[in-house]
Structures are given as structure tokens and as C-alpha cells.
Write a structure and sequence with these properties.
The chain is 69% helix and 2% strand. It is mainly alpha-helical. The longest helix is centred in the last third of the chain and has 48 residues. Keywords: Coated pit, Cytoplasmic vesicle, Endocytosis, Golgi apparatus, Membrane.
Amino acid sequence: MGKKITTLRDLIGAIKDKASQSKAAFISKPSNLSLHLAVLRTTTHAPSSPPDDRHVSALLTLGDSSRFTASALIVIIMDRLHRTGDSTVALKCLLIIHQIIKRGPFILQDQLSVFPATGGHNYLKLSAFRDGASASTWAISAWIRFYARYIETLLFTSRILGYFLSSSSCSAQKDTQEEKISTFLNSDLIRDVDSLVQLIEETVKLPDSLLLEGNKLLYEVIGLVGTDYLSTVNELLIRLSEFRERLSCLSFGDSVELGCILKRLEECKERSSVVFSVKKPSTELLWSSVTELSHKIDDLKVEKSGRKLLTFGKSSESARFDYRVMNFGDSVQFSSGRYEMNNLPLMVVEGKNWRN
């Protein structure tokens, strides 16, 4: 039984949905008709509620049949997203994409990850989205632009990590993460932490219009983003713990880079406490860990800077001494007193050359 139509906008939306279904039946290939109809059922114009979970589950099941089918389904969802000017339809399309990331079958997630695009900035092409039908749809448009940027960043971070963040299908990989991370190079760890911090930076840009009263679609967005946030916090905790273990082995350059990333993360703390007002033990542990590690890195940078200055001073004095000895003994003079320093054996540490 259909839902009760209460406004003219609902009536127009229902007519558009019927027209879309008829058009799909007329122009779709027989093999793709079920996919088109599944997408239309989950992305209706009805603004009162999120996509029906039964329809979402049916869509995910359809996408699990073959690589060809999964690819076709992703193209249909993206085509629906890019063609619509309706805020409700666009928001539902983004929710479907997020659900694929969260609980879709691997084959469907894989096709989403390789969907033709440059990745990163404006991957979903919604940075200019505006629905000016009413003041409400105009406000929701800001959420759509945020949500698209957020999903773009989530996809980018997932590519860096090698699995979809907070995805149920990747739980087996994440169970062994701590063991794998202990084998990472410092540069790989820094890359991971940077990508996770980028995701938190995007998360806290959530619009201030919390929440448009009674909009269940936005509540659904907040719920999914909140779950991702906790997963991001846990991923960061694992990596920051590993950095604490190997802090003394960090090069000066790595310690500076990590310190800058942690500073960006600390700048998100205040806003995150507003967006996610309920305190969790993991988030409290994250902020205390960031503060502790930042202080240790600052101390390490001071120590390494002092050590470099001391080493440079000794080397310069030694060079001057050698120069004086050579002049006194009428030895062959070199153009630079640092010649011997340039010929000392090299010690390779994590891809960087350091002088003994």
C-alpha cells in the first residue's frame, strides 16, 4: 500500500517516480530493467523517510550476481545522481552509495572504487548542487554538497588504507591490522594517518543547520557519518600507538611531518565535540593520545635539532684543524676543508642518507 500523499510536492514527486519507471521500462535493455527499477525504488521523490531497507537489501543482492551487473548498477546509480535536480533524490542516491560502502558485497564495492573518475576532489560532481524549490530544499542542498565531499574523502581514504573504512565485508582484514601495521615503513604510517585526518577534517564540516526538524533522511546521514567517525578514531588509535613505540627511531623530517598532521587533528577537537556531543571512551583516548604524542614529538625535534647543531660544530672544527695541519706540513691543499666529510661512509635509514 502506498504512502499517503499530503502536499503538492509529494504529488508531483509521485508522478515523476511513475514516469521514471515507465521510461526505464521503455528504454532499458531487458537485462538492465531490474537494475533500473531497483534504483528508482530506493531513490523516490518522497521526502518523508530514508530508502526502505528492504529495497536497499534487494539492490545490494542484485549487485552481487556478477562483475558486469555490479558495474552496470553503479553506472545507473551515478547517472541517477548526476541527472537529478531534486534534493531528496540526490540525498537518497548518496545514502545508497554510502550503504554500498558500509555493507555492500565486495564485487559491488570494487566496482564503486574503480568507477571512472579522477578520484578525490568533486568525484561525485555535486559541488555546485542547488535545489531552489523552497527554503527547505535550499538548506538541504548544503547538506548534499557536504555529504558528497564527505563520501569523496571516504573513498579516497579507503583507497589509501586498502579497504573500505567501517565496512562489514572487510572485518577479517581489520582483525589483523595491528600486526600488519607493525611492519609498515614510517612513510606508510604517516600516509595512513594523514588520510584519516583528512576524513575527520571533512567530517567536522557538517552543516550547522542541525537538524532540519523531522527530516529522517538527515538523521540517517548523521547516523552513518557518526559510525564512520568512530571507525576512523579506532584506526587512528592503532597507528598512533605504533608511532609511540617507534618514536625514537623517527627521522627529523618524519617527526616534523607527523607533528604537523597531529596539529591539524587537534584543530578538529572543538568542532567534533559539538558535532558528536556524546563522549565515547575511544574519542577521549584519541585526544589524550594526540596531546601526549605531540608533546613527545616537540621534545624529539628539539633534541634532534640540538644534536645536528652539535655535530655540525664538531665537524667544522675538525675540518679547520685538518686544514691547518695540511698547511703546516705543505701537504696537498683541497678546495674545501669538508672534503673528508663528503667521503665518509653513508648509512641508509628509511630511504634517507645520513652521515656517520
